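Anyone opening a protein record will find just a pair of labelled lines. A complete record is shown below as an example.
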Amino acid sequence: METCLMKEKIILIIIIWNTFLICTYGQSKTLPVPDTYKTIQSALNDAQKGDSITVTEGIYKENILWPATSEIQLIGEMGKTIINAQKKGSVIYFSGNLKGLIDAKTIIQGFILINGKPDNKKSNFYGGGLYCHSVSPHLKDLTIKDNVAHKGAGIYCFQSDLQLTNVTISDNQAMSGGGMACEYANPVLFNVTLSKNKANSGAAIYSVLSTLMLHNVSILKNMPSKLNNNHCSAIYLNSSRFILEYSLVWNRGIPHEIYFSEYDQENVLTIQDSDIRANDTLIITNNNGQVIQNISQPPATSSHSINKMYLSPESDSGIDPSDNITNINSIKLIAKGVYGDGMDIYVKGNPVPLTHTSVSDDIFTTDIFLSEGRYHIYARPVGALYTISSLPQPITITVDQTAPVIKSLSVTQISTKERSWTFITEDIDQKLLYQYCINRKANPEPSQSYSTSQSASIKKPDLKDGVWYIHVKATDRAGNESTFFTFNTIVDNTPPVIQIKNISESHLLQKWTWFSDGKEADISYRHLLDQLPHSIPTGDFNAMTQTTLSNVNGQWFLHVQAKDQFGNLSKVVTESVLMDCIPPQINGLSNDPIPKKEKHGNGIQAKLEPLFVLKSIKSPKQY
């Protein structure tokens, strides 16, 4: 009996202890600074998921490195809690290693962020106040001022869905994006002021390949970093979508209010009930985008909005059925999340007539007609309550009915082992696909699949001498195909064979000519005369086919090499000649050194006349 009671007590203790652990683990904590933690960084390092850090009034000289912990709330006393980076780095730095971990449940609220100056070790001089790489915290009730950076002095965000609410960004300075710089990002700004920021490009906001939604935002008194900068603007857009609702853009000290980059993809600026200084002249589009202004708001009869709009796959011709590039004029659009009376379609800011419309459940389909060109198309539900920021992103549809034209091919012989061809094509589409084959037949059609390669080659052992044909066909992304282009070329990997012939008419002057044994045309040569038997000619090939040699002595060698029109080099052929251009010399006469009139020898007596000796002296040859 006692044993059973003991077991029950133990089990009860275990249950109570486990319950305590579960409650303790699941309960978020509040970490006070400086009461418990002397620095904000130390509190962040100790925080767990869902914890709150409260920071009382004061100046905290820190450079905050955000930890790999989600859902932390960092709360200061608004207007009284200052984080001073002392120009030793960004004030708050979110590393790209936190990708996918930090979302809008991470909150930074109630601080003044000053004196940020990033270095090159972490952020390439980007993000003086905040550096946000692949993270999306929610910034509330902040003042971000007196920061400097190369890009994004106030805030730099990359691949971020950053949210800003009740934030002031002022008196920051950068080369690009004095207030804020966004790249591949989708920030949303509510009740934000950007003022007195400076930059050469985008004094307030600099955007590349981003979508920004601004509601009740004031962009005022921003300035260029340098005086007399005629290209500076308050807002700079490159391949971006920019939505202004109930906002003000008014910067008297700057040449342009909004500037579209003339490069890369088109920009879309949507303006709803906003005031922009001289918007008819100070919005510079550079023919690279469109401005959509003041779409009328329908009466509030439904809260539904369009979730997604896309081009019907059967209307998307070409290789990729999802790239919104087609050669069809009458196209079908599909929208999801549509109720009631359907939707209106706008092209270049103007409504277009719809045909064959239908609504089934929440799927809306309609046909529209587009002539050849590139269009930004957006939609709004008919008779539904919406704001511009709640609409789906516009889609870009390109209608291209012009087939590419292959103008020519250039051939390159990389070596005797490979021949390469490059296709030279004319088309508005810069991303063409090619289909080709290389063989000995004059009229076959390519049968292999398309590829993006703009060149083709053939190598040994397949590459053999003779006439070869390359057949090429191109298609653009809309599905327009070119006619076949056939190019023939002669492959000759056989080196020329040359002969040297001596045509001298005198031993004092040697003359040679040389020629190829074969019937090839366009043979060029180079030669060398020296006294070395194994030399190889160098230098350019030329049309010279003869040479002479005179006024020299000794053994001489003529070396000749040939090259044909295909770049094949012959072996070096060498001929030699012994040159002797020194004549004999007569130095004079001398008397017989023995003045006798008679000599005897072998028993014979002879009467001798005075004798003179003629000596021929010849200098030895110098070799």
The longest helix spans residues 2-26. The radius of gyration is 44 Å. Residues 20-25, 296-305, 599-623 have pLDDT under 50 and may be disordered. The helical segments are 2-26, 40-46.
